[in-house]
Amino acid sequence: MRHGQTTSSKGKIYSGRRDIPLTDHGREQARRAAQQLAGAGIDAVYTSPLIRARDTAEAIAGATGAPLTVEPRLIEVDYGTFEGLDREGAEAKLGSAFVDWRADPFGKTVRGAEPLADALARARAATADVIAAHDHPVLVGHQGILRIVLIALGDLAPQDYFTRRLHEAEPIVVEAPAVVPA
What is the pLDDT of residue 179? Predict the structure, then answer.
């Protein structure tokens, strides 16, 4: 599940590794999502270390009674020089490098940003570890890294990375999850 709303997510800004808190609406979204999951048999909650994800995960852990673990490998993709910018601002700043990356996110990189192949390797490892240890875990993170988790689970093709929009504090169910080999 993606974290609740932040001022950056509301503005469709690349937050990346910036530690931005939830808005009041985001806290309410997290509370509602937690209540939705309260009777779902959740046996573990894993979260990115960033506060927006941690606060969302704490609501889920509180409602479900599941233990909460901070998983550093679920931190958002490092967008480098375009963190804090929206898509138009990033394109204005980085030009064709940004446009090329958007067209081929796993084949192209933006200097200073984390290559998505590297993010996939860490997300695949974290996801495999969580699935091996629990029957019904919840992973709480961010738009970018959770799309990559979905790729690791075979639920999203790499070329569809930018076509899947993850809504704030909306649970995504992956039936019979199994990590796809590298």
Answer: 85
> Smallest Cα–Cα separation from 122: which of 178, 70, 172, 72?
72
Domain containing 121: what range?
Answer: 7-80+115-160
**Structure token pair of residue 168:** 């704030």
How do residues 72-101 score in pLDDT, each as one tens digit?
Answer: 999 999 999 999 999 999 999 999 999 999
Residue 109 confidence class, pLDDT cut points 50, 70, 90: very high
CB 52 within 8 A of CB 27: no
Which among 71, 76, 83, 168 is annotated as catalytic?
76
Residue 85 maps to a domain? no
- The answer to whether the CB of 123 falls within 8 A of the CB of 77 is no
What is the number of domains present in the chain? Answer: 1
Which tens digits make up the pLDDT trace of 23-36?
Answer: 999 999 999 999 99
Phi, psi (degrees; rounded to nearest 5) at 168 = -65, 130
In a domain, 130, yes or no: yes
Give DSSP secondary structure letters for 16-43.
TT---PBPHHHHHHHHHHHHHHTTTT--
What CATH number is given to the structural domain containing 11? 3.40.50.1240
Is 76 known to be catalytic?
yes
Query: Whole-prediction pTM value?
Result: 0.95
